[in-house]
Amino acid sequence: MIAVIGLGPMGRAMTSALLAKGHAVTAWNRTPGKAPAGATVAESAADAVQAADLVLVSLTDHGAMFDALAGARLVSKTVANLGSDTPVRTREAAAWVEARGGRFLAGGVMVPAPVVGTEASFVLYSGSRGVFEAHTEALRAIGDPRYVGEDPGLSQLLYQAYLDVFLTALSGVLHGAALAESGGVRASTFLREARGIVQLVDSILSDPQLARRIEGGGHADALASTRMMGATAAHVLSASQEAGIDLELPRAIESHYARALAAGHANDGWTSLIEILRR
Ligand SMILES: NC(=O)c1ccc[n+]([C@@H]2O[C@H](COP(=O)([O-])OP(=O)(O)OC[C@H]3O[C@@H](n4cnc5c(N)ncnc54)[C@H](OP(=O)(O)O)[C@@H]3O)[C@@H](O)[C@H]2O)c1
To answer: Which of 58, 67, 160 best tests ligand 1's pocket when mutated (most atoms within 8 Å of CB)?
Structure first.
C-alpha cells in the first residue's frame, strides 16, 4: 500500500498514475473530497501513513509536511517528499523524518501534473541510495526515477535550478508579449515568432561549447560578444521604458551585462556573465 499525502493537482495526478499501474493507494488531503476514484480515502494523515510502507508527500512546501504529519507514526516508514522547497529546508525535512524513526527521500517532479505517469515523466531523487533502490519500482509509476545523490537537498537544488530556467523563460515570454502589445501586436502573432527564439535557445544549449565555456574553458566567442549583447540588453530596457511597461526583468538582465562589461569582459562572449552570476 502506498500513501499519498496532499491531493492538489500533483498529488491527484500521482494517485491516478499509481492506481493505473495497479498499486493500492490510500490518500489524504486537508480539505476532503479531492481523492481520485479508486483510492482509499484516509480519515487522517496518520491513518494514511499507518496503512502504508511508502508515503508520498505532495504539498505546497515542507512546512506543510510538518503540519500534516505531526501526529503520524513514522517508524520504519519511507517518506518521499516530492514537493518543492529549498535544499536547506529539505535537509531539515530529512532530519525531522529520521528523528521520528522514518526514512526520507527527496524528489523533484520535473513535469507538469498532466504528464505524470506518462513516458515523458521523470523525477529527480536524492537521499539514501538504499532507500531509493528499495522503492524504485513503485516510484516508476509516476515517472522515470533518476537518482542524483546522497545529499537529500541535491534533488531540490536541481529542481530549483531547472525551475529558475523555466520561470525566467516564462516571464521573458510574457514581458516580450507586453512589449509587442504596446505596439499593437497581438499575442497570437508574437508567440508564433517567439517559438523560433525558444528553438534558438535550445540549439545554443545543445552546443557542447556552451558547457565547456561555463565550466571554465574561457569565453572566446567572435559571434556574440558581451559588448554587442550588452548594447542589446540596454535597448530592450530602453524600449520597455518607452512602452511604459514593467522594467524589473530587463533591468536585471541589463545589470548582468553592465557588470560583466565593467569587469573587463567586453570582448569575451556572453557566457562571461557566469562570472558575475557566480559571485
Ligand atoms: N502542479 C504541477 O504541475 C507541479 C509540477 C511539479 C512540481 N509540483 C510541486 O508539487 C507540489 C504540489 O503541487 P500542487 O500542484 O498539487 O499544488 P499546491 O498548491 O502546491 O499544493 C496543494 C496541496 O498542499 C496542501 N497543503 C498546503 N498547505 C498545507 C498545510 N499546512 N497542511 C496540509 N496540507 C497543506 C493543500 O491542501 P488543501 O487542498 O487542503 O488546500 C493541497 O493538497 C508543490 O510543491 C509543487 O511545487 C507541482
So the answer is: 58
pLDDT in tens, 3-50: 999 999 999 999 999 999 999 999 999 999 999 999 999 999 999 999
Asked whether residue 108 falls in the same domain as residue 184, the answer is: no
Of ligand 1's listed atoms, the one at least distance from the Cα of 61 is: 45
**Do 210 and 141 fall into the same domain?**
no
Task: List C-alpha distances in Å: 56 to 12, 125, 133, 156.
Answer: 11, 12, 15, 16
* CATH number reported for the structural domain that contains residue 9 in this entry: 3.40.50.720
Q: Is 123 exposed, middle or buried (0-12, 13-18, 19+ CB in 10 A)?
A: buried
Domain residues for the domain of 195 are 157-278
CATH number at residue 209: 1.10.1040.10
CA–centroid distance, residue 213 to ligand 1 (Å): 38
Ligand 1 close to Cβ of residue 121 (< 6 A): no
Distance separating the N- and C-terminal Cα atoms of the chain: 47
- Domain identity same for 120 and 224: no
Å from CA of 59 to ligand 1 middle: 4
pTM for the model: 0.94
| Helices and strands of the chain, counted as H and E runs | 11, 8
Query: Does residue 62 contact residue 90 with C-beta atoms inside 8 Å?
Result: yes
The protein residue with its alpha carbon nearest to ligand 1, atom 20, reads 60
